[in-house]
Structure formats: C-alpha cells, structure tokens
Amino acid sequence: MKIYTRTGDAGKTSIIGGRVDKDDVRVEAYGTVDELNCFVGQAMCFLNPDTNADLLGDLLQIQHELFDCGHDLAIAKTGVREYKVTAAMTTNLETLIDKYDAMTPDITKFILPGGSRASASLHVCRTVCRRAERCVVTLARTGDINEDVRNYLNRLSDLFFTVARTANHREGVEDVSYARSSDVFRRK
C-alpha cells in the first residue's frame, strides 16, 4: 500500500459522504481533533509509568475516543454512517474528572499552566481541546454533527485541567496561583 495517493494535490479531500476543500470547516474540526490526539501522545511521554499507570491507561483510551470523534466529524450527512461517540463517553469523563480531582489539593484561584513537563504538556492538550471544541461549534452552525462530540470535547478539556494538576501533585510540584485572580473555584 502506498501512503500517498495524489488525490489531494488539487486542494480537495475525501470525507464520509463526499469531497470538500482541505480548508473546509469540517476538515478544520476533525484536523484539530487529530492535532489534539498528537499532543495527548506527547503528554503521555512525559508521565512516569511507575506512578501514572492509571493516568496513562485513561489517556490511551482517550486517544481511541479522539479517533472516534474525528470519524464522527468526517461524516458529511447524518444517516450516511453510524456515529461512534456516545453520551456515555462524556459521563465516563465526568467520573475520571471526579476521581483525579479528589487526588489534588483544593484550589480557589486560576492557576498558571506549567510546573512539571507532564503538567505543562497536559495544559497544552487542554487549550488545543478548547480550540477543537470551538471548531465543532462553528461547524454545527453550517452542517450536521454528532452533538455528543461537542459535549465530549467540552468535558475533555476539564479533564485535561484536572489531570495536569494531578501530574504536578504526583511529582510534588505545587500549582502556581495567578497572582491577580479572584476566587473562582468553589471549595470542595
């Protein structure tokens, strides 16, 4: 099998149900999800497997689910193919958020992204996830989408925030509060 096809040389690409320009909002949406998946893989490289086996397993599952998101976003019309992302996947993210949040100290203020390499990388995942979510919101204005993908991405960015804090905590690195932040988080 050849990796290159030459079918995209004229600036078009295939999606499920047709062909579109490579800068189509649908391509931008699933392309940003693909970019996020790459950053998740990079963040995993910074996690110590001896102390983060649970987190690595959860992030690997998320990588598979991000492929599911990309699949669903590449569907041009509803009914052409079954969606893969479900509401249950978002509920699972909420369970993970609660699990990892319980492992970290309470915060009341915004924190600066950073600390350990793993935490900083997970914060990059959070912001790329937010960008992917914005792309999906834009796509939803003009085309059909699986709304479970939008919900999933919204919750996933919250998970990245939480696991970034978990990574710092496990490495003994304190989160740094934004100096001019008001109290924005409720205490547990």
TrEMBL record:
Its EC number is 2.5.1.17. Pathway: Cofactor biosynthesis; adenosylcobalamin biosynthesis; adenosylcobalamin from cob(II)yrinate a,c-diamide: step 2/7. It catalyses: 2 cob(II)yrinate a,c diamide + reduced [electron-transfer flavoprotein] + 2 ATP = 2 adenosylcob(III)yrinate a,c-diamide + 2 triphosphate + oxidized [electron-transfer flavoprotein] + 3 H(+); 2 cob(II)alamin + reduced [electron-transfer flavoprotein] + 2 ATP = 2 adenosylcob(III)alamin + 2 triphosphate + oxidized [electron-transfer flavoprotein] + 3 H(+). One of its GO terms (biological process) is cobalamin biosynthetic process. Belongs to the Cob(I)alamin adenosyltransferase family. Homotrimer. This is Corrinoid adenosyltransferase. It comes from Paenibacillus contaminans. The lineage of its organism: Bacteria, Bacillati, Bacillota, Bacilli, Bacillales.
